[in-house]
Amino acid sequence: MVDIVITGENGKLHAVYHKSAAEAAPLAVVLSGNPRQKYHMNDRVSYAMFRSFMDIGFSVLRFDYRGVNDSEGSIGTTADNMLDIATVIDWIQNHNEDSDKIWLAGHQLGAWYVLQAMMRRPEISGFALVSPDSSISDFAFLSPRPNRGLLIQGAAESDDSRAFSTHLTQVLKKQAQIDLETIRIKNADANYTGAPELRQMYNDLKAYVGRENEEDKLL
């Protein structure tokens, strides 16, 4: 993996990129949580998601939104961050023109960005949501977009968070025609603080993506 700089709408974005040795390997972009809550591309969850794609042969990229660490500018709004996400997706696709699959994975606020990006990018092949931020309840951006994905959650998260994930699954199925497979990881909190729980999250994500990608169930 190498550090790279991508020119964004508001300056340079710092990213880490792994290029697969396999010809026409599938692609993935990892989205970290809310930068105002100190999440970034090198936090433990973002790195574990990145490694899960890397270790099953994907070309994969993670990055810091504008205003975070070495990315230029000031911390932005959701609209600003969505522009950065679009820039990064364009970059990895332009550098892998032979690939016909791209996945998105996001943690916390990044999980919501995954869903928003999928609504805007019909080429998204598959997705994973890791402990989505339960404080967000605006589903207005969802429209029918038949697809399948994975939701991973810590079993030690709050009752409200677990109930919210059940509600989110129902909303996605009804409003966007999306089916979610849900995995709850024993003893894990929303940040997968324990090493065994982080390893389990990595393994579960890797297994799901590997299976779905191999069987080519996703469009």
What's the CATH class, please? Alpha Beta
The overall strand count is: 8
Rounded to an integer, what's the Rg over CA atoms?
Answer: 16 Å
Query: Tally the helices: what do you get?
Result: 5
CATH superfamily: Alpha/Beta hydrolase fold, catalytic domain
Question: What class would the helix/strand composition place it in?
Answer: alpha/beta
Describe the structure.
This protein is of the alpha/beta class and 219 residues long. The chain has a single domain (2-215), classed as 3-Layer(aba) Sandwich (Rossmann fold), CATH 3.40.50. Helices cover 36% and strands 25% of the residues. It contains 5 helices and 8 strands. It has helices at 44-54, 78-94, 109-120, 159-176, 195-215, and strands at 2-8, 11-18, 27-31, 59-63, 102-107, 124-130, 147-154, 178-185. An 8-stranded mixed beta sheet has the order 1-2-4-3-5-6-7-8, with helices on both faces. Strand 1 (2-8) and strand 2 form a beta hairpin. Helix 1 (44-54) runs parallel beside helix 5. The longest helix is centred in the last third of the chain and has 21 residues, at 195-215. It starts with a strand and ends with a helix. The relative contact order is 0.15.
Quick take:
This protein has 219 residues and is α/β, with parallel strands linked by helices. It has helices at 44-54, 78-94, 109-120, 159-176, 195-215, and strands at 2-8, 11-18, 27-31, 59-63, 102-107, 124-130, 147-154, 178-185.
